[in-house]
Structures are given as structure tokens and as C-alpha cells.
Amino acid sequence: MNRSASLSRTILAPLLLGVLVIVLWQLAVVVLEIKPFVLPSPSSIAAQFSGSIATVWSASLVTGSNAVIGLLLGAVVGIVAAIVATVLPLTDELSAPLVAAASVIPIVALAPVLYTMFGADKETARQLVAALAVFIPVYLNTLRGLRQARPVHRDLMRAYGASGWQATRAVTLPGAVPFLFIGLRIASSLAVISALIGEYFGGPIGGLGKSITSAAASSNYSLAYAYVLGAIILGLVFYVVTLGVERLVSPHRADVRGAA
Prior knowledge:
This protein is an all-alpha fold. 80% of the residues lie in helices and 0% in strands. The protein has ten helices and no strands. Helix 3 crosses helix 10. The two termini are 29 Å apart.
């Protein structure tokens, strides 16, 4: 019974709310005669999406590949940096201002600079923008998780004669896993958003961001929203895959609340 109630809250309720919003959106556009350049109707967006599914798919592959590379790069660097900061506290103190500065760097200012550095015909700038956006939540959450091990647990491991690596493997790393995946869940969506925004400011032709701007520039607003829908689906795919990996790695571990 409790499982059915939980299923209703987590799946059915959001689906019903989404359907209600779409219905009200369609009614508002028809009744109020809202112009397409202000807000296209869901039916016109769906028609453009289905008619342009091939181009949406190819653009999603470009943005998705940049987001994947950025996610992997930013996650690896964030995890390694968190481990180093845990082992060497002085490193954490020295890097704290740099991490704070990196967390507030605007993508709109960073992307053009990276295009100048690495070339406007390369995808490198978009991947680095995504990696930077991923690094911050992964680093901060992993660092917090690595510091969750209580002194009493460490003392117990020392009392049993465990080595430093054994204590880390048995106590520190397992405790950090939920926090790591909290960071990855946040970062998975940020990777897509950052790669998408990076496409607005130059680089090779292709990707959802470029497609959105091109469609809007030609006043095909329904098509622009169709690409936006593709970006939403891509972000959801990233989030669901990350959540699935988390369930595979720690299927019985309770989620850590409040860290996100």
C-alpha cells in the first residue's frame, strides 16, 4: 500500500500536473490568441518536433557529446581535487578562494575567451565550459562526504590495527558515495545547460543552442521551441542515467537529504 502511494506521488502526480499545464497552455494560446513569437502552442511545437525529429536528434548528439565529455572531465578533476584537499588540508585552504571564484564565473564571459584560445572551429570551448560547471558541485559535495567520517569510527579502525588505506576504503569512501552522487546529479543537468549556453557564443555549426538561435532568427518560433524540447529531454536523460548509476552502485543506501 505504501509503495503504491509512493509511486503515485513520485510518478503519477508530476505526470498529471504536466498534462494539466500543457492543456492550460494550449487553451490560453487559443482563447487569448497569443502570437507565435510570444508563445507558440504545444500542438504547433509537437508538430515541429515530430517533423524535425532527425535534425533535433543530430543536434542533440552534438550537445550531448560535449556535455558527456565535460561531465566526465569535471567529475574526475572534482573527485581528485576533493581527495587531495582531504589528505592535505592546507591545499583546501589555499584552493578555497579559487573554487569560490570559479563558481561565479559567468559562462557568457568565459565561452568567447575559450573560443579565442582554442579556436572557433573546435568543440573544446564548449566541453571546458561544461567541465567547469560540473567541477564545482562534484568537488564541494565529494569534499563534504569525505569529511563525514566520525572520529570515533577512525579511532575504532586504528584500534583494530587497520592501515590508512583500509580505514579509507571501509569508512571514508563508503560514506562519501551518497554525497558524490548528489553532486553528480546536480552536475549532470548543469553539463547539458552549460554546453547548450556555450553554443550561443560561437563555435562550430551544430548543437541545440545553435539550432535554437537559428530558428528564432528566422522567426520559426515553433521550431525553436521544438529544439528547446529536445534540450529538456536531453537533460532528463542525463539525470535519469546518473540516478540509475547511483542505484546500481548503492541500491540499498538511503539518500542523503539536505545536501543539494
